[in-house]
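User: Could you check the structure of this?
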Amino acid sequence: MSILSSIQKNTAEQLEKWRSFRRHLHANPELSFQEFETSGFIKKQLQEAGISFTDGWVKTGITAIIHGKNPESRFISLRGDMDALPILEKNNVDYKSKTDGVMHACGHDVHTTCVLGAAIVLNQLKDQWEGTVQIIFQPGEEILPGGANEMIKAGIFNDHQPEAIYGQHVYPELPAGKVGFKSEWYMASTDEIYITVQGKGGHGAKPNQCIDPIVASAQLIVALQTIPSRRAEPATPTVLTIGKIQGLGATNIIPDEVTMAGTFRTFDENWRYQAHQHIHDIAKGIEQATGTKINVDIHVGYPALFNHPEKTALAKSLAEEFLGKENVVDLSLRTTAEDFAYFAQRYPSCFYRLGTTGPDGKTFNAPVHNNCFDIDENALLTGVGLMAYIGAKG
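Assistant: Sure, the predicted structure tokens are below.
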């Protein structure tokens, strides 16, 4: 039996195990860098499967190693993230989150299940493939500084430099059984913008006696939109969004201060930092024009994610072998972000999408980061199986 057939058969026979893993993880979510019980559950499964691992990476992270035949012939890594989001789940299911206000709304329970399942399958079939596969169970994808970069700095690749790193992410835009790929630039960099506009408060009927931070903030928000619309190269996707603003005045009160927060995203690292300077310059101009004091604090976040063309082409061809060409689609550029980009900055990498919606397109189609997000669990067959096949052949 070929390794392809063996993985397909082995994965299908253990679907109930993958389902039980995912439901346990979904019911017991933990926030970023707090994934202690999740880590304990993973270690228990690895121990029972006879898979060696090291733990304590950035407190909760784990790396496992599976050796096939001729283990020195190749070394690749498969990554799954473990953390959940501060969202109150609204799904009415048996495996609903038991932790009030915390939910696996981004599918990291699926990602963890898939790499854990792939590790078990590869270990069970280790006489049928060559090389060594490292499994990365990563904490803290959802918040800065990002667990990927922290694990790299902690030394997870000190003993072996991977020839390639592969990761996948749930994708409710596709039905279960399908996957999607995008070569080269795929996901945007992400930086957090925090701005404070300080003025002089007073009576709303006497604005001449005040320095109005509300008006200055309105001018600033509008002016910042000239960065993507008038400063960016038209061919370089750029997003600048102010998503939060707070000025605690009233109908007849001008406040002393307004705070706001937003995000900046693009795909060009040089332009990224030029845009940061434009933000500061525009704020300085509004400050001088209005008499306010404006403080801008930009938290540099994840870099843009680049999928290595050769590794992406290889993973896509393996997906076509595993699932059939009709179940493999091409994806478009997107301005969401992922800390997998830190892996992709250093090693040839491929980050692809796993379809999770029901076959009718109407069930399990809530978007990620939504309190009703859930998956058609047939996606686990694809997620575990394809990850194992890429591990064996990628």
